[in-house]
């Protein structure tokens, strides 16, 4: 939910630290496939860009399928 991501960014800016996380399944997939889990604003920005590309190229069903195959249970 992009609205929740926006709220997380606003809350983090307000607090001056990473006070609240927020990411879509697409973002979590991108993070797990291409990036580290380090809390870094530059990583998050890159993650957002790659997520947009991913969402343009793949269906939501395919993104969910990949996510379920990548996450650790």
What is shown here, in short?
This protein is mainly α and 73 residues long.
Mean pLDDT figure: 84
Largest sheet: none
The number of helical segments is 4
Count of β-strands:
0
CA-based shape = globular
Structural class: mainly alpha
Low-confidence runs (pLDDT<50, min 5 residues)? Answer: none
Proportion in β-strands: under 5%
Question: How do the helices and strands follow one another from N- to C-terminus?
Answer: HHHH
Helix content: over 70%
Quaternary form: single chain
Terminal CA distance: 22 Å
Radius of gyration: 13 Å
How would you describe this protein?
- The longest helix is centred in the C-terminal third of the chain and has 17 residues, at 41-57.
- The protein is mainly α and 73 residues long.
- The protein has helices at residues 2-15, 25-34, 41-57, 60-70.
Q: Secondary structure elements and their pairing?
A:
Elements: H1 2-15, H2 25-34, H3 41-57, H4 60-70
Helix pairs in contact: 2-3, 2-4
Features:
4 helices; 73 residues; globular; 0% strand; mainly alpha
């Amino acid at each position: 939910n992009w609205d929740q991501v926006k709220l997380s960014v606003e809350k983090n800016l307000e607090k001056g630290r990473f006070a609240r996380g927020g990411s879509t399944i697409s973002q979590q997939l991108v993070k797990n496939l291409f990036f580290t889990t380090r809390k870094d604003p530059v990583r998050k920005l890159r993650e957002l860009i790659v997520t947009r590309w991913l969402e343009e190229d793949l269906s939501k069903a395919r993104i969910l399928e990949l996510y379920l195959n990548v996450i650790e249970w």
